[in-house]
């Protein structure tokens, strides 16, 4: 064994980092190791890539790490820092291999689930408190874009369309954004969750290290077999418990490769079908004294600041409700997503992008599975995906297209017709290790994240969420990770090391 820890966490994304933070905060002196196959993007471990001020340096760094000095898990390099899986039925399915995982790239929207989105296997009061803790860890606020111009007009127009007495009103999107000492806005990456975690005694972040197999003794995990991707050296790390939070693809992959194969493993894969539209806010909603931005870039790709948040980037929210199963993100864009007519001038925040996420019907036949006859670059079973839309999904998408088109017209002049993004585009992958109340073949873990049939193996991430949702999943996943860490800390405190050694 190359060292022994109380807890090994596989994956340094928002959930893995939150679990490690909560375990360390428990104050019980637990030794925690976090394994990450990738490297840090920039100088801050787990920092959001859009906070890298030097655009050329950011692009150079990400281009290098997308391919890597050594092969990384995943398929074709896609957007910076991520790789496409290569699934025909979900062509835009991607994974991220770097410190912070997809949390170094996400759009930071953090709405709470409501109505039938809420997991019914967790007591409501317990979940509410965990969601509040997750909001604290992620630095969630609804005031990040209070300075954004024209936001009030956008929200008034959309509120007239969608507000009802039984629904949450249109308003500011809860976002994970922090304010720097200089007053600048910064995206929350897992570095914000970590705080000083990586400098604490007893906590270690080990990068460039891939978990290949869980070591088992009956129903107990005793450690993890790892490989150093730079040298190829393999070793074993001992652990009293393991939490696998390696994303919706690699978490079930590691369990499968280790012989941990609950009936529901990899099944109930779902994401959010995504419909996009854009509009130029009508002049009647623009104050006469609003400044004209004649230097507005023609397309978003040319936007200044390399993706950094600027005050015009208002982010509004059309919340999900059971009687309209869509969740809307509305961004007042720093640039038009399509070329504007020659001579057209717009005010800052006047170009409005709309993204509607649909609630997808659950099915055990939508799944990720693992090919034992083919392997990836590290000898793990190759990832395969079976994914299809049901008749209900198709009807939902058509209804969302109609609704988003109506919203674009109400706001002003639509910039083209609404369009549906290819499957996988949302980057919100749920269900492949879903939790449940009972070990009945429809879930992989209990409400604390403990894998059925094991004593000390836990899973975390968006993949644990058991419900069909429309809202962004990260806040919910981090809240469930908080519950996992609390349960695990209590379990370890109740079982002394000496007692485990003789179990």
UniProtKB/TrEMBL annotation:
Coiled-coil positions: none
Required cofactor names: FAD
Family annotation (InterPro entries): FAD/NAD-bd_sf, GMC_OxRdtase_N, GMC_OxRtase_C, P2Ox-like
Record flagged with keyword Oxidoreductase: yes
Domain Glucose-methanol-choline oxidoreductase C-terminal: 366-481
MF GO annotations: flavin adenine dinucleotide binding; oxidoreductase activity, acting on CH-OH group of donors
Keyword Oxidoreductase: yes
One Pfam family from the record: GMC_oxred_C
Listed SUPFAM superfamilies: FAD-linked reductases, C-terminal domain, FAD/NAD(P)-binding domain
Keywords of the record: FAD, Flavoprotein, Oxidoreductase
Occurrences of domain Glucose-methanol-choline oxidoreductase N-terminal (ranges): 198-273
Domain of life: Bacteria
Similarity comment: Belongs to the GMC oxidoreductase family.
Name this polypeptide is given: Choline dehydrogenase-like flavoprotein
Organism listed in the record: Geodermatophilus normandii
């Amino acid at each position: 064994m190359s060292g022994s820890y109380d807890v090994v966490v596989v994956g340094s994304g928002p959930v893995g980092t939150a679990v490690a933070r909560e375990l360390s905060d428990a104050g019980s002196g637990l030794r925690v190791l976090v394994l990450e196959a990738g490297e840090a993007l920039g100088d801050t471990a787990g920092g959001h890539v859009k906070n890298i001020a030097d655009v050329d340096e950011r692009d150079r760094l990400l281009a290098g790490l997308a391919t890597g000095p050594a092969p990384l898990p995943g398929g074709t390099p896609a957007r910076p820092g991520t790789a496409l899986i290569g699934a025909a039925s979900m062509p835009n399915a991607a994974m991220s291999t770097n410190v912070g995982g997809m949390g170094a790239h996400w759009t930071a929207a953090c709405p709470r689930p409501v109505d039938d989105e809420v997991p019914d296997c967790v007591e409501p009061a317990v979940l509410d408190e965990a969601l509040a803790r997750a909001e604290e860890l992620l630095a969630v606020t609804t005031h990040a874009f209070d300075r954004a111009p024209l936001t009030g007009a956008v929200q008034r127009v959309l509120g007239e369309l969608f507000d009802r007495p039984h629904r949450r009103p249109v308003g500011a999107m809860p976002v994970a954004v922090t304010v720097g000492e200089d007053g600048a806005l910064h995206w929350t990456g897992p570095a914000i969750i970590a705080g000083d975690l990586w400098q604490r005694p007893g906590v270690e972040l080990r990068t460039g290290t891939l978990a290949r197999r869980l070591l088992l003794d009956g129903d107990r995990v005793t450690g993890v077999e790892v490989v150093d991707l730079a040298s190829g050296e393999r070793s074993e790390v001992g652990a009293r418990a393991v939490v696998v939070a390696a994303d919706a693809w690699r978490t079930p992959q590691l369990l499968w490769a280790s012989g941990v194969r609950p009936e529901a493993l990899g099944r109930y894969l779902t994401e959010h079908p995504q419909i996009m539209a854009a509009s130029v806010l009508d002049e009647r909603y623009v104050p006469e004294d609003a400044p004209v931005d004649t230097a507005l870039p023609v397309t978003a790709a040319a936007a200044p600041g390399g993706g950094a948040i600027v005050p015009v980037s208002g982010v509004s929210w059309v919340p999900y409700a059971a009687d309209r199963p869509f969740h809307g993100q509305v961004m007042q864009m720093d640039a038009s997503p399509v070329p504007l007519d020659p001579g057209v001038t717009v005010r800052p925040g006047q170009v409005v992008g709309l993204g509607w996420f649909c609630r997808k019907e659950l099915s055990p036949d939508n799944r990720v599975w693992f090919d034992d006859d083919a392997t990836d670059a590290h000898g793990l079973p190759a990832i395969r995906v079976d994914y299809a839309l049901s008749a209900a999904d198709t009807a939902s998408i058509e209804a969302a297209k109609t609704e988003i088109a109506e919203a674009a017209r109400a706001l002003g002049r639509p910039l083209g017709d609404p369009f549906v993004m290819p499957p996988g585009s949302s980057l919100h992958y749920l269900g492949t290790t879903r939790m449940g109340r009972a070990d009945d073949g429809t879930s992989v873990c209990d409400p604390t994240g403990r894998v059925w049939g094991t004593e000390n193996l836990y899973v975390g991430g968006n993949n644990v969420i058991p419900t069909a949702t429309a809202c962004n999943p990260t806040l919910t996943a981090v809240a469930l990770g908080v519950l996992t860490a609390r349960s695990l800390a209590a379990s370890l405190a109740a079982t002394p090391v000496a007692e485990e050694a003789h179990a």
